[in-house]
Design a protein that fits this description.
heterodimer; A: 264 residues; mainly alpha; 12 helices; 0% strand; B: mainly beta; 2 domains; 38 strands
């Protein structure tokens, strides 16, 4: 995998750790919600868990930029998985039953990076090692998230409708109707599922590139629709674009027959 | 004070889940629903376990039960059907049937007495009051989040029932959503509906509900239970509670920016010039005391502020709050006040009281609560009734059904070991053993039966007592509560049921004993009463316990057992509530 791809992953993981830490600190994580509401533990226990998680995530964010540590990356992946499972186990919306799939790319980013880490300090600034396993983790994580979001879009999930209407209003002053937004979501749903299928089955490099652009655009839609106060909601989704971008960069510079490689 | 305490103790019996048992075609789980035009209309809804064929509401403007005079009017249910079972529930649980009778052409501000009849089986006589069509004063209560904490939910519901009798001008109950854990499951709605019966006042007064859909209430059951408030799945609508007060119910679980926002703007534009008080209720908090602002904020708040909404009633946060008046993200006397935010049973969260909109003159707190809004002559008053959380906090045996109380007398053997295992069972003669009251042990000053010579002499104590298995009848769960130092093994009729801090073996052969300090009571579930009866039979049941110290030289030893059932509940008392907030607002034209 290329150095640029590795840096792309490192930045994505650091950013999502920061945004996740912010949420845990300011309003409480999903794990907090599960511990308090579902497991029936005292709120102090749930809050302490969040405080520990916040500290850890901040350390991981710094570490991943300065000197990534495999164990910390695995901890980060475990926390992202715990968050997704907590949503699944303590659902609050109709789409929460698929949260582990929707969050797959957030889990895949630190997990894949953990398998890509160089073994020596010197290698850190050199061409990173090839890891078919890591690439598969990234591919599967990206595809799972896109397919899940695609299915939610096909169901005209209300939050997605509002992201489209809100973004259209904010950016082009267009008062898009609900039926118009729902028609767009039908197209987006098919588009997302198709991209995920092409990424897995055809492994076309341009598909990864387009998914990177689209993933970043959808992450940014939280801010474009709801304003700058929602920055953390965009940043926590940075892997939606960051991971396909890493795949694109990896395929751009290196083709390895034994790994899941691009068809040109 | 002493009398009040005795009354509380006397009332400390298990509280019923509901007024009626769901069986056959007995009308149960009744509720009234208001949407549009509550001065002239109400929907009477109920549940039967069996489908039945004839479902009728009898009603009149005077009580008729027991008078020999028939009700003047009756109406057959227009909508009947089976509650939708989730695919995971089909074949595993028993379903039930809903019935809705929509009464029209009622007189405003009138008390109606009614009985529900399904296939000849009648409910108790109940009554409600229609909304005023004029500008007379009235009260409304609001609350949300009753999805967990069933004991607290029953308590709050019973308290609402008391309020309904205490305040004759209290006419409705607006529910902010999150009734249950997951709205697609009938097994969650079924107890909620029975518990909702407890909001019926002791005199039989039923407060019509104005329901909101919460994020935990997806699926078709919400519409089947409340007869499609607004329109099916959309569930946003306006209730004109008097000629001068309107409540707009919104749905935070569907698109907020699309059709709903356009409808909201039309309603606000239409109503504002005509109403003195304009309110809204929805589930997710826009100015939350706990969570992030809800996503609808960008779409709804500009409309609230443009059309000078007075009050927004919010839920979801599991805390108590009243914001300062807010306009353009700043405190402004002309702004909107947000009140909430969910305390009909759910465990309460610590509010983030440093948020700017919760500062004085706003407030935040945590308690199970209901909000009472009084619309008087030239004012609106909001009072937050906080209920004491009697059954929260550390385990206390006296707050539970007691099978073997914590101060029961036990037979005990100290200083030697019984022969064999017979001592654990029911046929053993323990008349040669000593008698004492827990806790058994020495040091730490936490024992009643002090075993002075135990230190350095021996490390094991054996206890026996018995109870009548008839006591187990109907108990949903039975638990052994223990305070112990260091370990124990418990037996029911000779069969080991639980152990702690002892790895293997028993009696003198016990091994791998860990250190353990006796602090708070620790609970060891033994199963439901029915399970235990089936395992233990009908004769007296012997509970035998062996307590172990890790070493003879240990600095202390404690063994204090009791056997308990579910928590006791008692009906709340009206005067128990704490007024968490009392706030009065004058109409905009007078400010």
């Amino acid at each position: 995998m290329s150095t640029s791809a590795l840096w792309c992953l490192r930045i994505s993981v650091a950013a999502q750790c920061l945004a996740t830490a912010r949420t845990a600190w300011v309003v409480g994580s999903n794990v907090n919600g599960w511990l308090f509401m579902k497991a029936g533990l005292p709120e102090t226990v749930a809050s302490t868990t969040d405080q520990v998680a916040t500290a850890l995530l901040l350390v991981i964010a710094a570490s991943v930029l300065l000197r990534p540590v495999r164990v910390l990356l695995l901890v980060s992946a475990a926390w992202m998985a715990a968050e997704a499972l907590a949503i699944w186990a303590n659902p609050g919306t109709v789409v929460d039953s698929v949260a582990p799939f929707a969050h797959a790319v957030r889990i895949a980013a630190p997990l894949g990076l953990a398998f890509l880490l160089p073994k020596t300090k010197r290698e850190l600034f050199q061409m990173p090692p090839r890891s078919p396993l890591a690439l598969w983790i990234l591919l599967l994580g990206t595809s799972a998230t896109f397919i899940t979001h695609g299915m939610e879009a096909l169901q005209h999930y209300g939050r997605f409708v509002d992201l489209i209407i809100g973004s259209a209003k904010q950016w082009i002053g267009w008062d898009l109707s609900q039926s118009g937004a729902e028609a767009a979501l039908t197209f987006i749903g098919i588009h997302d599922i198709l991209l995920a299928a092409l990424l897995l089955l055809r492994r076309w490099r341009w598909v990864a590139g387009w998914m990177a652009l689209w993933g970043l655009a959808t992450a940014l839609s939280r801010m474009t629709a709801m304003g700058g106060d929602s920055w953390h909601q965009s940043v926590v989704r940075i892997a939606n674009g960051g991971v396909p971008l890493a795949i694109y960069l990896a395929w751009w510079q290196l083709v390895r027959p034994s790994a899941p490689s691009p068809h040109k | 004070m002493i009398t009040a305490a005795l009354l509380l103790l006397a009332a400390a019996t298990p509280q019923h889940d509901s007024w009626t048992t769901l069986e056959g075609t007995t009308p149960a789980q009744w509720r009234l629903v208001w949407t549009a035009d509550p001065a002239h209309r109400v929907t009477v809804s109920w549940t039967t376990l069996e489908e039945g064929s004839k479902h009728v509401v009898h009603y009149d403007v005077a009580p008729r039960a027991g008078t020999g005079t028939p009700y003047a009017r009756k109406k057959t249910a227009q909508r009947n059907g089976a509650y939708t079972l989730n695919k995971g529930e089909v074949g595993k649980i028993t379903g039930a049937f809903y019935h809705h009778t929509r009464l029209k052409n009622l007189k405003p501000s009138t008390i109606y007495w009614f009985q529900i009849e399904s296939d000849g089986v009648r409910s108790p006589e109940l009554h409600f009051q229609t909304a005023p069509a004029d500008d007379r004063p009235f009260r409304l209560i609001h609350g949300g989040d009753s999805r967990t904490g069933h004991a607290a939910r029953r308590q709050v519901n019973a308290y609402i029932g008391l309020l309904a009798d205490e305040y004759p001008d209290l006419i409705a109950f607006a529910h902010g959503g999150d009734y249950i854990i997951w709205g697609e499951l009938w097994i969650h709605w079924r107890p909620w509906l029975s518990h909702h019966e407890l909001t019926t006042s002791p005199s039989g007064r039923v407060l019509p509900m104005i329901p909101t859909r919460g994020n935990h209430d997806p699926g078709p059951l919400f519409d089947e239970i409340f007869d499609d408030p607004g329109e099916p799945t959309l569930n946003y609508y306006t209730t004109d509670i008097s000629s001068k007060v309107s409540l707009i119910t919104l749905n935070s679980e569907i698109s907020a920016a699309g059709d709903q926002a356009h409808w909201l703007e039309r309603e606000l534009k239409r109503l504002r010039p005509k109403r003195r008080w304009l309110l809204t209720q929805y589930h997710r908090a826009i100015y939350p005391a706990v969570k992030e602002p809800a996503a609808m904020k960008a779409h709804w708040v500009p409309l609230f502020e443009k059309y000078d909404l007075d009050i927004a009633l919010e839920s979801d946060g599991h805390s108590v709050k009243r914001t300062v008046p807010i306009r353009a993200e700043a405190q402004d006397p002309t702004g909107v006040i947000y009140i909430g935010e969910g305390g009909l049973g759910v465990p309460q969260r610590e509010p983030k009281s440093d948020r700017w909109f919760l500062q004085e003159p706003g407030m935040s707190d945590m308690a199970h609560h209901v909000v009472m809004l009084e619309f008087g002559d030239g004012y609106m008053n909001s009072r937050l009734f906080g209920l004491p959380d009697s059954y929260a906090g550390p385990f206390t045996p006296t707050k539970h059904v007691q099978l073997i109380p914590s101060d029961a007398t036990w037979r005990y053997l100290a200083g030697s070991d019984p022969e064999g295992d017979a001592w654990r069972g029911s046929g053993f003669d323990d008349s040669g053993w000593s008698s004492g009251v827990p806790g058994f042990g020495y040091a730490d000053e936490d024992d009643v039966t002090v075993l002075e010579n135990m230190r350095s002499e021996y490390s094991r104590v054996y206890l026996r007592t018995s109870f009548d298995p008839k006591q187990l009848s109907g108990l949903s769960d039975v638990q052994l509560a223990m305070r112990y130092d260091d370990g124990f093994i418990a037996y029911l009729n000779g069969v080991e049921v639980t152990r702690s801090s002892i790895g293997s073996g028993s009696g003198p052969d016990a091994d791998e004993i860990d250190s353990h300090e006796a602090k708070e009571w620790e609970l060891f579930p033994l199963g439901s009463g029915a399970d235990l009866v089936s395992r233990l039979g009908e004769g007296p049941v012997v509970l035998a316990i062996e307590g172990h110290n890790k070493t003879k030289s240990s600095s202390d030893f404690s063994l204090a057992p009791c056997l308990v059932g579910p928590p006791l509940e008692r009906p709340p008392l009206l005067e128990e509530a704490v007024i968490l907030d009392d706030f009065t607002l004058v109409p905009r034209e007078d400010r």
